[in-house]
Structures are given as C-alpha cells and as structure tokens.
Amino acid sequence: MTPVRMLQPRVLDDMTIEVALSLMDSARVEYLLLCDGDDQTTGAVTRTRLTAFRDSSAYTDRTRLREVLHPQSPVPSPPWEASCAVSSPVTRST
User: Fold this and answer.
1) Given its phi and psi angles, is residue 30 left (phi above 0), alpha (psi -120 to 50 degrees) or beta?
2) Rounded to an integer, what is the distance from CA 33 to the centroid of its chain?
3) For residue 32, what is the DSSP state?
4) pLDDT tens readout for residues 7-50
C-alpha cells in the first residue's frame, strides 16, 4: 500500500461559505487555510465556525470566507505558508 500524506487544503479568502463547506466535506478536513489575493496565508477557518456562521442571521449565500475570518485567527507556521497556487490536497509518495 502506498502511504498518502494529506496536506491541509489552502483556498482563496473570496470563496463562499457553502463552497468551503462542500470542499471540507470532500477533503474530509476540519479546517481550511486561507490565502489572500497576494497569495499570502492570512489565517484558518474551521468547519464549526463556518457552520455556526451559516446558521446565523448574518449569513447570506454570498458571504465570503474573509468576512468571517477573525483578525486574530491563528496563522499556521511552515510548511503551510507556501504559495496557495501550488497547494495540493493529496501527495503520494513511492
């Protein structure tokens, strides 16, 4: 069996909450790393937080991740600070 190393998905912070939750379901992850338009990691957001926001009165189907990102959200340290453009959810090693 080939070992699989899962990398946390990194997404742009302009993604909608619904798309992000769908991605989290597909990738089977509990949080996403967020990147801005300059390809810089800006924070992380959890499934719990997105679900709570989606269930609040502030939610609309156009709400973007950057709108729920708290300014003091933790930013992961390397190697996750790599460019968003080169992220891959799954890497197979041989």
Assistant:
1) alpha
2) 4
3) E
4) 678 899 899 999 999 999 999 999 999 988 888 888 899 999 99
Q: What domains lie within the chain, and their CATH numbers?
A: 10-76 (3.10.580.10)
| pLDDT at residue 3, rounded to an integer | 54
Q: What is the token pair recorded at 50?
A: 């997105």
Q: What is the pLDDT of residues 60-84, one digit of tens each?
A: 999 999 888 754 445 444 444 445 5
User: Distance between CA 63 and CA 16 in Å, rounded?
Assistant: 6
Q: For residue 48, give every residue at least 6 positions away whose Cβ sits within 8 Å of its Cβ, in sequence order, or none.
A: 30
What are the structure tokens assigned to 80, written together? Answer: 């996750």
Q: What is the pTM of this model?
A: 0.66
Output the CA torsion 15→16→19→24 (10° steps). Answer: 70
**How far is Cα 57 from Cα 49, in angstroms, rounded to an integer?**
14
